[in-house]
Amino acid sequence: MTHYQSDLLRLLDERGYIHQQTDAAGLDALAARQVVPGYIGFDATAPSLHVGSLVQIMMLRRLQQTGHKPIVLMGGGTTRIGDPTGRDESRKMLSDETIEANIASIRTIFSRLLTFGDGPTDAIMVNNHDWLGKLGYIELLQEVGTHFTVNRMLTFDSVRLRLEREQPMTFLEFNYMILQGYDFRHLAKTAGARLQMGGSDQWGNIVNGVELGRRMDGAELFGLTTPLLTTADGAKMGKTAAGAVWLNEDALPAYDFWQYWRNCDDRDVGRFLRLFTDLPLEEVARLEALQGSEINAAKIVLANEVTKLCRGEDAARAAEATAAATFADGGLGKDLPVLTLPAEGIGIVDALVGIGFAGSRGEAKRLVAGGGARVDGAVIADEAHHIAGGGGELRISAGKKKHGVLRPA
After folding, report:
1. The pLDDT value given to residue 405
2. What stretches in the chain show pLDDT beneath 50?
3. Which listed residue, of 49, 278, 368, 385, carries a Cα 20 to 30 Å from 55's Cα?
4. Contact present, 397 and 374 (Cβ < 8 Å)
5. Number of helical (H) and strand (E) elements in the chain, helices listed first
6. Torsion of Cα atoms, 55 then 61 then 67 then 68, to 10°
7. Residues 381 and 349 sit within 8 Å (Cβ to Cβ)
8. Cα(391)–Cα(134) distance, rounded to whole angstroms?
9. DSSP letters along 28-50, please?
């Protein structure tokens, strides 16, 4: 572990957020002597972000906790184009009205985790459509285009991988990295931003912004990325057998959100407590050291703490009570049927038959078609749905009264 002088980098380092930095010593010195405005960009492709974005939101929270200023950049402009990073196909175009509605909806999660206002360390939310939408094409080419070479742009993974797979990439998407670099330059000039953070897949885009600010304005800017976040079994954060784990209450009930954390892999407990909760590191160390079935107590703490942050204390308390009633109290928990979930997973039809909720595959298919099959509270409407193995326990239900447990082998 590196010895940092600033509270910001010390906290980010201790809790496992740091993967790459453009100039660690320079950022550390800056953060030790002044308030550093830092930003992360979020696209507005849906009305809610999911758990995969939570590590970035928590980074902004850590920025504020250590006396710095978080800037939430909503990609109202770049959402109209689409980031090719990690994508094999072009993104669907959204209307202006849809994007605006998505941004308004997404703001709710930031309002829970950050303090917004006009103070020096209060968070602000900005929309890059406000400046990108006014940027003339000729102006962009003259001012910014001269600082990017096609040779270098072709080496970035987001572009190179698409070309290697011979998958089409529109000129629109090719421009994305130029616009993201321009965002950093604009925020540096208008909001004093000195730091851009993001996931490791954004490293190339962040470096572009740092270099663009230096070339155009002589600005000293900094970049920092987090490690690529996957669960212990290699799955991407925020995806489950039942679908995406949305952060907004209206996109996913609090109980199902709570269950996602309660069912995490034993190996992920300590890491998730450091990244996604405000618990002191001594308490995290105590919880992650628990052995055997005692680790379940740590998972309940994790589920409660993350749900409290994202949904509020009442939601966390209610979710824990519901879980206790479903799985533990009144014989319901003890008597729940259990089906061993193979490492390779299982189809929903076979799971319903295997656990005894359907007498035949035909009956199981009718149950699915009628909307009566659920995994972790989410309705499974496709009879071909495959439940992934390798994670924690899952709740499987048929109708309102039949509940069972899919337990990893």
Report:
1. 83
2. 84, 86-89, 329-334
3. 385
4. yes
5. 18, 15
6. 70
7. no
8. 47
9. HHHHHHS--EEEEEE--SSSS-B
d(CA 64, CA 369): 48
Q: For 347, phi and psi rounded to 5 degrees?
A: -75, 155
Q: Which two tokens stand for residue 31?
A: 């953060």
Reading the block at residue 393, the tokens are 């326990």
> 389 in helix, strand or coil?
coil
Distance (Å, whole) CA 280 – CA 365: 48
Which residue, among 55, 52, 42, has the nearest Cα to 180 in the 3D structure?
Answer: 42
Cα distances (angstroms) measured from residue 287 to each of 1, 200, 295? 21, 28, 7
CA distance 390 to 396: 16
Instruction: Tell me how far apart the alpha carbons of residues 54 and 109 are, in angstroms, rounded to a whole number.
Output: 10
Q: Six-digit token pair at 370?
A: 């009628």
Structure tokens at 369: 């078609």
Rounded CA gap, 240 and 376, in Å?
9
Q: At what angle do helices 203-217 and 176-191 cross, to 10 degrees?
A: 50
What local confidence, expressed as pLDDT, does residue 401 receive? 60
- Structure-token pair, residue 41: 């960009």
Can you give the pTM of this predicted structure?
0.78
Can you give the pLDDT at residue 240? 66
- What pLDDT is attached to residue 331? 35
Q: For residues 254 and 296, what is the distance between their CA atoms, to the nearest angstrom?
A: 19
In degrees, rounded to 5, the angle at the alpha carbon of residue 395 between the alpha carbons of residues 394 and 398 is: 140
Residue 109 · residue 49 · CB < 8 Å:
yes
d(C-alpha 167, C-alpha 90), whole Å: 9
Return phi, psi of residue 78, to 5°.
-70, -25
CA 84, CA 74: separation in Å to the nearest integer?
17
* Greatest pairwise CA separation for the chain in angstroms: 72
CB 45 within 8 A of CB 91: yes
121 class by beta-carbon count within 10 Å (0-12 exposed, 13-18 middle, 19+ buried): middle
The CA distance from 184 to 57, in Å, is 18
Strand duo 402-408 + 394-398: pairing: antiparallel
For residues 224 and 207, give the distance between their C-alpha atoms in angstroms, rounded to a whole number.
Answer: 9
Res 322: pLDDT: 81
Q: Which residue in this structure is represented by tokens 């212990």?
A: 232
